[in-house]
From TrEMBL:
MF-aspect GO terms: acyltransferase activity
Keyword Transmembrane attributed: yes
Classification of source organism: Bacteria, Pseudomonadati, Pseudomonadota, Gammaproteobacteria, Pseudomonadales
EC number: 2.3.1.-
Protein name, entry field: Acyltransferase family protein
Lineage: superkingdom: Bacteria
Domain Acyltransferase: 6-331
Source species: Marinobacter suaedae
Pfam families membership: Acyl_transf_3, SGNH
Amino acid sequence: MKYRREIDGLRALAVVPVVLFHAGFSLFSGGYVGVDVFFVISGYLITTILLAELHAEKFSIVKFYERRARRLLPALFLVMACCLPFAWLWLLPEDMVDFGQSLMAVVGFVSNLLFWREETGYFNTAAELKPLLHTWSLAVEEQFYLLFPLLLMLLWKLPRTGLLVLLAFVSAISLAIAQWGAHNQPAAAWFLLPTRAWELGIGALVAMHLHNKPLDAQARGGFNQLMSLVGIGMIAWAIFFFDDNTPFPGVWGLLPVVGTALVILFATPATLGGKLLGARSMVGVGLISYSAYLWHQPLLAFARQRNIVELELPVVWSLIVATFVLAWLSWRYVETPFRHASTVSRKQVFSFSAAGMMAFFAVGTTSWATNGFDGRVQGELAEGLLAVSREKTGQQDCWEAYIKQPFIENACSIGLKKEKADFALVGDSSAGALFSQLEAFSMRRTLGGVDMTLFACPVLLASERKDHSQRTACRRFGNEFREAAVAGRLPPTLIVSSRWTLWLERQGVDNQEGGKESIRNITVANENTKKLGYVEALSRDYAESIQMLLANGYKVVLIYPVPEMGWDVPKHLMKTIHINGELTLHDASISHQVFRQRNARAYAALNAVGDHENLVRIYPEKLFCNSFIDGRCAAHVDGKPLYSDDDHLSKYGAELVLERVIEHL
């Protein structure tokens, strides 16, 4: 196969945006499309080799997999081995379990299936902390390599035109599935082979075309000049203008994929596009692109795990430099030697591969079996935090029941079971977080209540959430609640809590001090949205919902927004103790000013309810902010977390709020 410098230049154009995207540079908001460029290149190169060998009747499946093992496994195993000590030092047990599972999945070439099953959103904060997340693309390629050579060998006797048509048809089907999945099953569309096969297929089609009509390296006509530059421009457009809201990898994926195909088809050393990609610097980066891709995610993920808060810019740039330094070293001293049979024999390659797979599988299995080597977490405080992070609430059982059947008749009881309940707990999971402690308070005071909460469901609103998988249950749940309220069938006192600010602002909190919560945008809409605008329509819903309850004679204990931390509090506290050996109030808190700024519109909406003799307002802000540390909203008191995750109250936090609530029941 004749060497083409511009292909290595394409690799550089792919890997640099991926690294900068994962490093957090917003300019490269679509840098993730570098993976799609890699897929097209892989499809092209593999098919080119297969066609040449099949045409010469020299194809060997054993030799094919030997080449793949030489190319992929040595550097991959090196990076995985280097991850182990840092995982041991810095990962908490739960994260260590996930890491162990990813080790097993990587060596089984199914890590894409693992991350899909874990429902890991590629763009969320949790994904940033997974050292081996990027191996999903290697799994997709390996699954392709497992199937495609065998299929091509079986279909080789078909007429070339028929083979082209068949491959084009399969690629079109894959693209159609990807388009549907990007809008309906985004995680599956992102990670799985059926929705990515068309990208590799485009590369294979390019290879078949060039096999029948070889590229003239000296071709520099106007059409070649134009098409090669258009291809580079299409890739660049995707890199700079796509973002995490772009439905992907559906038809929008055609931009970088077709762009890559155009470059391969028309960029020759004689064209301007070919000269740009064939420049020494581009080729140099392209040569080490595989190792750079392997190193960048573990470096960034472990640094984020270690730093606890968001990485500062100098640290980020240091990690980027380290990525390419390590990439050169592993390319020079690991990748290159293993590629040559004169240095490493076939038997040694397969023996090395088998030994590495078994070793990493054993480590991963042990990590999973020991709950992430949880014996590493030392100290009574850390062990207590670990217990809080693993707490489960009976609330989940209620929610599962509510989704399947009407909730008014099947509402879970809180405290004493009474024929006529004293109160109802109403709202989404923010209200549900109060369930366990409210149960304890109610038993002590001989009160009986019912639970009327459903996760991710603002049952008070006339609006309807459009993007939640349980939207049908949520709609039914809300309608039943409002009908019962108007009919006077609810308990006399209603404790109402919701994550008001999230619904109103439509995105998670960024506390501007390191921690952040990334949530897919939310849409809650009604007939007033177009006329009034989203914020005004939803704000009016808030006020009118509470006013409706008051007008129907209910006493409403309204709980205002709980300060959101933006990071998992028990994990944050454990990690601080695990790494720093101590814990202060300032180690887990957010700025009170940041809280006020984010919640200003939610406060205004709830204040618009107006005064009423049956309305009681509870302000968690007054309990959590400035009470323990000036100018801050605390996440823990003496190591006791006030939250069970980033925003839901733990039993300790719930107790603080309910002490103010219970006196009004």
